[in-house]
Amino acid sequence: MLRLVDIRKTYPGFALSVSLEVGSRQTLALLGPSGSGKSTLLRLVAGLDAPDLGQIWLHDTNLTPLPPEERRVGFVFQDYALFPHLSVAENIAFGLREARWGKEPIQKRVAELLELTHLAPHAHKRPHQLSGGERQRVALARALAHQPNVLLLDEPLGALDLKLRQELLFELRTILHQTQIPTIVVTHDQSEAFVLAEQVAVLQAGQIVQLGSPEELYHRPKNPWIATFLGHRNLLLPEQSRPFGLPPLPHLLPQEALQLGQGEEAQVSERIFMGSTVALKLIWRGLELHWEGPEPGLYKGDRIKIRVDWSRVVALENPAEQNQRPGST
Ligand code: ADP
Ligand code: MG
Question: CA-CA to 293 of 20 to 30 Å: which in 63, 118, 170, 257?
Fold first, then answer.
């Protein structure tokens, strides 16, 4: 178990304040917009920076006073930071040579990692001869080489184009399931966090504002900021909630609460074809609602009926402070 106990780090105009636990075989995603403190937190765990206050524990060991090389932490940096003049195999072996492993154990370990990350055919190439996805896997193999006690990944798919990200996402999930060490993966992408992690911590301006499983977070976001950041589109402000007989709080209308085909009249104001799904904008009782699903056969200007299943509507807390907009970079 990795434990961050009341960790504080302050920079001009920024304050990180976090307590967190990651189980021995668990992957935790740290999800937050740019500038929320995700990389800072990873650097503190790796020992690349020192906290102002607080402690970092791994099982019964206090890591806080230890230098990075004694923490046995594997780190995948956002830009991978591979050595350009070394081959794939040499990049993976680098830390093992530094740690004075013998020639044979190094060869054996490198072969294992080439297999795990499907890089064996590329073992002798240099980084510039690899695709983005292959480079990403070299960085991962190198981070895992010395059998670290903790794995930290900073936006591991951030440098890749969308299609490759989707491909590698499920592969990375499989590898993380095999590694069985406490892992923190940083991302600003909600779907990445959901696919990779059992627990997701939402970070806003240096504070964890919600922690839970992907399902808990998605179905029960605490406030409008979190709901929007997790991809929900239909929110009612407190003043919009009253006419529906709801308490004067913000509310989330999840897609499951919208039933097309019965109820009160609505008009399609926009239709966006997206391939396997179609997105609609619907004007209903003065609200603009977003709907997305399999081809509904509806077009701009069509009139339909909508019923809201109020039992599925989620009351949210008033946001404490909204000094960061979701999706801002
Ligand atoms: P994220 O990884 O979530 O995008 P960071 O952890 O990189 O965010 O940064 C969080 C905040 O801390 C930002 O406002 C950033 O400018 C500031 N910051 C990070 N590192 C330093 C540093 N070495 N010196 C001063 N400010 C820093
Ligand atoms: Mg960062």
Answer: 170
The rounded Å distance from CA 124 to ligand 1 centre is 36
Closest residue (by CA) to atom 18 of ligand 1? Answer: 11
State the closest ligand 1 atom to the C-alpha of 203, by its place in the atom list counted from 1. Answer: 3
Nearest CA among 269, 264, 28, 266 for reference residue 152: 28
Burial class (CB in 10 A: 0-12, 13-18, 19+), 170: exposed
Q: How far is the CA of 244 from the centre of ligand 2 (A)?
A: 41
Which tokens hold the place of 98? 């530094």
List the residue whose alpha carbon is closest to atom 23 of ligand 1.
Answer: 11
Q: Compute the distance between CA of residue 111 and CA of residue 134 in angstroms, rounded to an integer.
A: 16
Q: Specify the domain boundaries for CATH 3.40.50.300 within the chain.
A: 2-225
Task: Work out which ligand 1 atom sits closest to the CA atom of 33.
Answer: 3
> Given the DSSP bridges, would you call strands 2-11 and 53-58 parallel, antiparallel or unpaired?
antiparallel
Read off the pTM: 0.90
- 217 close to 241: Cβ distance less than 8 angstroms: no
Closest C-alpha among 257, 202, 259 to residue 235: 257
Spacing, Cα 35 to ligand 1 middle (Å): 6
Question: Tens of pLDDT along 239-262?
Answer: 999 999 999 999 999 999 999 988
Fold observed for domain 234-315: OB fold (Dihydrolipoamide Acetyltransferase, E2P) (2.40.50)
